[in-house]
Structure formats: structure tokens, C-alpha cells
Amino acid sequence: MENGRASTKPISQVTCTAPVNIAVIKYWGKRDEQLVLPINPSLSVTLSQDQLCTRTTVAASVDFKRDRIWLNGQEQSIDTPRLQKCLGEIRRLARKRKHEEERSGDLLGCCVHICSENNFPTAAGLASSAAGYACLVQSLARLFGIDGDVSHIARQGSGSACRSMYGGFVEWTMGRAEDGSDSVAKQVAPAEHWPELRVLVVVVNAGKKAVGSTEGMQTTVRTSALVAYRAEHVVPSRQDDMKRAVLDRDFQAFGEITMRDSNQFHATCLDTYPPIFYLNETSKQIIHLVHRYNRHHGKVKAAYTFDAGPNAVLYLLQDDVPEVLALLKHFFPANANNDSERTFVRGLPDVCRKDV
Ligand code: DP6
């Protein structure tokens, strides 16, 4: 329906879901704001489809008078530069295809309606924009019949979104091309490669973050000497070490690098002027708890990482989930009796959520 009139023409419609990804080597800083090109490569783990994810339906019809978008039931402006960029790039690619099918040729003249829902708090530092743009670009690509990698388009919606285009362990390469065409996401290993790996999402605060990632990293790049050092001297070798840890399923190395990289990312936030604080007291207590737990066992059994917010994501192996959940309940008893703790048994990595 548009303007209350029933449509007489057929609608083409596609629905996709895309999960969030949680970086273990963080992206923080762009070398090109327009093309969304990062100052360092990054690596993440994509959660499984049925957990923290976005579901997007895109429809095209000749009856639609203009492009429109709804996010969690609320209509939003379609005129944001990033949305326009993704829509424009998809349409450009669809037009460029050599042997256009009848269907996509027809659709090229149509406006689209986009409906997107998150099953988790939006903009709370739980990678909502990553899942959102990955899902949008994936759905549009399918609607317009575009095959092949479109992670370079998702990247222009939100940098970290390019990594949610693939499952399992995914790297985002820096690339060298001026047009950014080789700054893309690539799968390092599929999810099945490490079936025992688990993710525990510890929701410290589900509210909207004070400083968004885009703005935060701009200020960091402009004012922090540490972030330039990190990009040039730390991340390149760390990225290689992390890939090796993943391929070898070496949890000791994986966990230690994950924690070191999260800490260094937050150190660059502190080195930003004026400083940015994403971690709160509860986040810091979780960090201490994980180190005490690991020290007690004489090895890395759990690893924390924090994005642009206070919520902790813990990586651990399946056998240790009950013990770590019990520890969290013991040390953060406030919400111990609530029912928001969810454990999932399918997919990989499985997510347990604990609100503290
Ligand atoms: C801390 O991808 O949200 O989660 O490209 O400006 O949209 P934009 O930023 P965004 O930044 C994510 C930053 C991070 C680390 C990461 O996911 O690698």
C-alpha cells in the first residue's frame, strides 16, 4: 500500500537476517571517511543467526513513490549519507551487470521499502549497526539479483558491517586500492572450525552509548598519538598472530590477544583528547574477575572484550560456561533472579546472555 491505495502491481520482496560480529582485533579509526577505509585490519567472530541479529525485509514495487525505511517499527529518514551510499552502490552495481535478468532490470526503476528489526538493544555497543547494514546490503543485493561479494558496500554503511557478511571468523583487510575496492571482508575459518567456542554477552547497560563509534574514532584519530602507533606497529603482527590462533584453535593465544587488543583499544580512547570512557565500574570489575579466574586456573580460560560501550563479551570454551556463569551470578547478584539470561545450544559460537 502507498497512500492508502491497494497495489495492483506485483511486489518483489526479500527477507534476510544478519548476526552481529564481535571483534577480537578492533577497528578504530578511518583513513578515508567517505569510503570508510580503516587505519588497521581487524578480525571478528560472527555470532550464529538465531542470536543477536537483525532481520530485514526489502520490497520493490512500481507503486512505491519513494524509498522509505522503518527501524524497529519506526519510520526513519532515508536521506542519511550512509543509507544513500548503500542504496546508490547497489543500484549502480545492478545496472552495471552485463547480462541483466528481466527481473532485476524491471526492479531498477522501482523505489524500495525497507523494514528492519533488531532482537537486541540498538546502539548500546552491541554492534547493531554492523548487523543492520550487513543485513540491508545483503537483502538489497538479493533483491536486485547481485551475486558475489558485496562487503565493500556494507563497509560504506558501517565499517564493522562488512565482517557480518560472513559467518565464523572473519577478517577485514585494509586494502590498497584508492577506490577501496580491495578493503573487504574475508572468512578466515567457518564457524564449524571451532565448535567448542562460546560467547557470553554480559549486558551491563542496555542504554544508548554516549559517544557513537563514528564520532569517537574521528576524535581519536585526530588527537591520539597512541592510535597511530597501534595501527602501524601493533595490529599488523597481532592480526597474523590472531589468525594463527584461530586456525590452530589455540584458546590461550586467542584469549590473551583478545584481551590485550580490547585493552589497547580502550587505552586509545583514554589517550583521545578529551578522553572517551566506554568502560564503567562494572566493566572494570568484570575485567578483574576474568583475570582472577584465569590466574586461579593458571591459564586463560575466559577472555573479555569491550566495544564502544560498557557491555562485556566473554569468549570461553563450552565446558567452562556453567562455572563462569555461576561466578557472574555470585559476584553480580543484583539481577541473579531475573529471567533475561538466555542460553542457546545451537549454532556457533553459542551465546549466553547474562544481565548484570
Ligand atoms: C569498537 O563500524 O560502528 O565496535 O564505521 O563509523 O560505522 P563506523 O564504525 P563502527 O565501529 C565499530 C568499532 C568497534 C570495533 C570493531 O567492531 O571492530
UniProtKB/TrEMBL annotation:
GO terms for molecular function: ATP binding; diphosphomevalonate decarboxylase activity. It catalyses: (R)-5-diphosphomevalonate + ATP = isopentenyl diphosphate + ADP + phosphate + CO2. Pathway: Steroid biosynthesis; cholesterol biosynthesis. GO terms for biological process: cholesterol biosynthetic process; isopentenyl diphosphate biosynthetic process, mevalonate pathway. Pfam families: MDD_C, MVD-like_N. Residues 199-356 form the Mvd1 C-terminal domain. One of its GO terms (cellular component) is cytosol. Residues 18-185 form the Diphosphomevalonate decarboxylase-like N-terminal domain. Its EC number is 4.1.1.33. Keywords: ATP-binding, Cholesterol biosynthesis, Cholesterol metabolism, Lipid biosynthesis, Lipid metabolism, Lyase, Nucleotide-binding, Steroid biosynthesis, Steroid metabolism, Sterol biosynthesis, Sterol metabolism. It comes from the Eukaryota. The keyword Lyase applies. Catalyzes the ATP dependent decarboxylation of (R)-5-diphosphomevalonate to form isopentenyl diphosphate (IPP). Functions in the mevalonate (MVA) pathway leading to isopentenyl diphosphate (IPP), a key precursor for the biosynthesis of isoprenoids and sterol synthesis. PANTHER family: DIPHOSPHOMEVALONATE DECARBOXYLASE. NCBIfam families: mevDPdecarb. Belongs to the diphosphomevalonate decarboxylase family. This is Diphosphomevalonate decarboxylase. It comes from Branchiostoma belcheri. The gene is LOC109482384.
